[in-house]
Amino acid sequence: MTKHLTINVSDLRHRLGERRTIDIDVVLPALEVIASRSVPDEPVVGTVVIESIERGVSVVGQVGSAWIAECRRCLDDVEGRSEVQIDEIFQVDAPDDADLIDLVGDSIDLLPLVRDAVLVGLPLAPLCRETCTGPDPDRYPAVTIDEIEAERAAEEPTPDPRWAALGELDLNE
């Protein structure tokens, strides 16, 4: 298991298009967004490809991690796994206003990329099961998105009277 993710890219930068595949298997220090969402002390695994490009390197790949959260309705513990894409560019003298990471020296540190990807992969509002009714379903009924959309479709919006004349036009003549 990898303890660090600092990769020396000096050999890659000698030829454009040169590639190296890196397997990621690292346990990240305690990651917790809020008390109800965290990443357990299990390895984050994945693979990235580092490719030499003009003035830097690109890093493209995918990492996966387990997560623990609370159900948004009943607050029971929910466990899951997320897979997140990584697509970043390290560039020498990267402009401050660009979505690029400044490449300083001959090494890149993938740990912040992996950490950010894992945090992005945490669910926003997980459910223990789709049919979870929550702790007090009579007082706070759970409504699915399908039910909301069906209700909206059934509601006939009242037309603006200023446009009523357009409804009288027969465009088939």
Polypeptide structure, described:
The protein is 14% helix and 36% strand. The chain is mainly beta and 173 residues long. The protein has a domain at 6-120. Strands 2, 3, 4, 5, 6, 7 and 8 form a 7-stranded mixed β-sheet that branches. It has a two-stranded antiparallel sheet with strand order 1-9. It is flat and about 70 Å long. The N and C termini lie far apart (74 Å).
Key terms:
9 strands; seven-stranded mixed sheet; 173 residues; 3 helices
Residues in helix, %: 10-25%
Low-confidence stretches: none
> Count of helices?
3
The class by helix and strand makeup works out as: mainly beta
Radius of gyration: 25 Å
Distance between the termini: 74 Å
Q: Main β-sheet: number of strands, strand sense, barrel status?
A: 7 strands, mixed
Order of helices and strands: EEEEEEEEEHHH
Integer average pLDDT: 84
Strand content: 35-45%
How would you describe the shape?
A: flat
The total of beta strands comes to: 9
Question: Could you give a short description of this structure?
Answer:
The protein has 173 residues and is mostly beta strands. It is 14% helix and 36% strand. It has a domain at 6-120.
Helix and strand arrangement:
Blueprint lengths: L5 E3 L10 E8 L4 E4 L2 E3 L4 E10 L2 E15 L6 E15 L9 E2 L4 E3 L1 H10 L24 H10 L9 H4 L6
Parallel strand pairs: 7-8
Antiparallel strand pairs: 1-9, 2-5, 3-4, 4-6, 5-6, 6-7
